[in-house]
């Protein structure tokens, strides 16, 4: 039996990496997926890769009017929203000496503000007792990662936001699960500016998983667990999926 038969899912960051793998996984398990991203081409590729039910919408998660319209359109198209999965995110590697206010604003806008806006709007539709929110934090939130101060801080904010939201929504029995992947092999980590030349990255060899980087599908399966009835007692706790890299 499919865990997501009849389940209506709103998903951000669906055009690439973990988000695309999550769209595929949830649709394969029966979900109707409303897939949001800023990348039109990426969304088209995601839709083409899915056999199940998927609707795509171009939206920037930092644009408040666009988020309000997108969530309303998703609820209309799907006939409600059962699950919100926030995956959209951006990364920046830079030493503190060259960190700019623009970097900080962009990281916090996409990673934290985008997540918070989608939660606020989706909560107008998520049903009490069965509604679920999964927010993508990062192992960087709780593990010191050199040259990633601003990214780590933005993900720490996503984690803190999610834990508090879980407590706030416990009375409605709406679960909120922050998920913290370690390194995942996606376009984000393959980008040439992920590990710029000249930085001493030796520390990363100490915190690398013996299992290597995760495949996006391995994070998608954890998101599917968190969002499904299998995760019914899982809320307000960081779900680390890091191949033991934190030990
Ligand atoms: N890859 C990793 O090692 C890793 C580890 C921990 C956490 N994460 C987090 O997982 C999430 C997905 O990462 P990924 O590796 O799949 O990256 P990715 O770059 O492959 O995908 C990120 C997606 O977010 C979308 N996006 C970016 N800004 C947006 C905006 N303003 N509005 C709407 N969509 C936007 C991009 O277009 C892209 O499709 C991110 O939040 C990332 O921080 C990734």
TrEMBL record:
Keyword flag Nucleotide-binding: no
InterPro entries hit by this protein: KR_dom, NAD(P)-bd_dom_sf, Sc_DH/Rdtase_CS, SDR_DHRS6-like, SDR_fam
Residues of the Ketoreductase domain: 7-172
Keyword Oxidoreductase among record annotations: yes
One Pfam match: adh_short_C2
Keyword set, alphabetical order: Oxidoreductase
GO function term, MF aspect, one: oxidoreductase activity
Protein family membership: Belongs to the short-chain dehydrogenases/reductases (SDR) family.
Name under which the protein is recorded: SDR family oxidoreductase
Origin species: Actinomadura darangshiensis
């Amino acid at each position: 039996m499919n865990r997501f038969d009849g389940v209506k899912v709103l998903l951000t960051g669906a055009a690439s990496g973990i988000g695309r793998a999550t769209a595929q996984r949830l649709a394969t398990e029966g979900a109707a997926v409303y897939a949001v991203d800023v990348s039109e081409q990426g969304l088209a590729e995601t839709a083409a890769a899915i056999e199940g039910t998927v609707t795509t919408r171009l939206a920037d998660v930092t644009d408040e009017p666009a988020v309000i319209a997108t969530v309303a359109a998703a609820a209309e198209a799907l006939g409600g929203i059962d699950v919100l999965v926030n995956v959209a995110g951006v990364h920046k590697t830079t030493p503190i000496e060259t960190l700019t206010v623009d970097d900080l604003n962009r990281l916090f806008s996409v990673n934290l503000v985008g997540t918070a806006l989608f939660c606020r709007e989706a909560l107008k539709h998520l049903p009490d007792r069965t509604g679920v929110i999964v927010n993508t934090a990062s192992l960087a939130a709780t593990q010191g990662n050199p040259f990633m101060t601003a990214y780590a801080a933005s993900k720490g904010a996503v984690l803190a936001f999610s834990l508090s939201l879980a407590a706030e929504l416990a009375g409605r029995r709406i679960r909120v699960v922050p998920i913290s992947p370690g390194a995942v092999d996606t376009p984000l980590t393959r980008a040439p500016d992920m590990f710029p030349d000249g930085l001493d990255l030796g520390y990363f060899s100490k915190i690398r998983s013996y299992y290597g980087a995760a495949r996006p599908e391995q994070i998608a399966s954890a998101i599917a667990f968190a969002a499904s009835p299998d995760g019914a007692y899982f809320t307000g706790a960081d779900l680390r999926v890091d191949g033991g890299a934190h030990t």
